[in-house]
Amino acid sequence: MTSRTAADRIAGTVRADIRALSAYPVPPAAGGIKLDAMECPYELPDAVREDIARAVHDTALNRYPAGDTTELAHDVRKAFGIPAESGVLFGNGSDELIHLIVQACCEPGDTVLSPWPSFVYFDMAARFDHARFVGVPLTADLQLDLPAMLQAIAQHRPKVVFLALPNNPTGGLWPDEAVQAIIDTAPGLVVLDEAYQPFADHTWMTRLPTLPHAVILRTVSKIGLAGLRFGYLSGHPDWIAQFDKVRPPYNLNVLTQAALRVVLRHKSVLDQQAAQLRADREPLARALADLPDVTVFPSAGNFILARFSGEFDGNTVHLALKTRKILVKNVSSAHPLLANCLRISIGTPAENTALLSALQDILRSH
Ligand code: PMP
């Protein structure tokens, strides 16, 4: 008998775990101050945009992207200091590379493990790709629990361990010794996700050639190019060759490639923007911490996690900011350790000032 409605047919066809999910939420932010997604608040200068326009003009859209990305790889390696002996793989955002890693490594039911809470997509990608996700709780003050990590690694023997350095959404940067201990203990691959590295003044990239079972994942999304959708993975060429096999053909479109090559010629613009955000982080953190009943967690990223207590819960403050057209990320119910927490991207100085005065207003009005 054929099903009469789409719902009938979907129920018998789409995986039950997928049917139970909601799609990744991207709230609208038109007209307001957008501090919810760790984007860079600065747009590229006109001169760079004009260069991009010319490069786009000269790009053939009727052909598939070239298979040979040697020239782009040369530019990316130079701009981001990828060691000569390491391989490199490009993704349509680093989200895609997270999938490729899990797909290449995990049989159904194999374990992917990460300190938790961390980037939600580690969990989602693992489950979409039929792996089992184990999140190892952070300590109450949102630091890495190394003994718990080592114990969980021994127990679950994960194929892949993801470490976000710095961690999203908490902002902490796990100590080198702890990361090294995890690399030394893990039986499979360790992915060092340096999405927020430009704000941390710290990297594992120079040490990558000495780490045969670790790879480094990076993105340009946080340094001013979130709309481009470009991420890269570097590590031993033999690992990279395996992941390249599950990469969808032509995953990097020609417009992204053309624009990226232009922007990388102006890399100092991106570096200056990141430096500005780094410089604005401490004053914003201090001003937030000075508000009544607000706890701020130390951040090495371009965002700050703040906990609201006393009369105000995270949901109330989030909503009150939203009615003032300021969008921050409410992570209050994402994990018990994040109760009443909001994650706030660092904006322009004017946006940070507007946020602070809105918060003063909200907290005073209660
Ligand atoms: N890794 C981490 C830790 C992130 O927080 C994010 C984005 N929020 C990503 C990777 C994905 O970035 P993109 O897909 O934009 O490259």
From TrEMBL:
CDD domains the UniProt entry points to: AAT_like
GO molecular-function terms, A-Z: histidinol-phosphate transaminase activity; pyridoxal phosphate binding
Which of the residues bear the PTM N6-(pyridoxal phosphate)lysine?
222
> EC number(s) per UniProt?
2.6.1.9
* Official protein name in the record: Histidinol-phosphate aminotransferase
- According to its UniProt entry, this protein's organism is Bordetella genomosp. 4
Subunit and interaction comment: Homodimer.
Q: InterPro entries, alphabetically? A: Aminotransferase_I/II_large, HisP_aminotrans, PyrdxlP-dep_Trfase, PyrdxlP-dep_Trfase_major, PyrdxlP-dep_Trfase_small
Q: Name one GO biological process term.
A: L-histidine biosynthetic process
What family is reported? Belongs to the class-II pyridoxal-phosphate-dependent aminotransferase family. Histidinol-phosphate aminotransferase subfamily.
Q: Which Pfam family is one of this chain's hits?
A: Aminotran_1_2
What catalytic reaction does the record list? L-histidinol phosphate + 2-oxoglutarate = 3-(imidazol-4-yl)-2-oxopropyl phosphate + L-glutamate
Q: HAMAP family, alphabetically? A: HisC_aminotrans_2
Annotated metabolic or biological route of this protein: Amino-acid biosynthesis; L-histidine biosynthesis; L-histidine from 5-phospho-alpha-D-ribose 1-diphosphate: step 7/9
Name the encoding gene, please: hisC
Give the UniProt keywords, A-Z: Amino-acid biosynthesis, Aminotransferase, Histidine biosynthesis, Pyridoxal phosphate, Transferase
Needed cofactors, names only, are: pyridoxal 5'-phosphate
Q: Where is the Aminotransferase class I/classII large domain?
A: 33-359
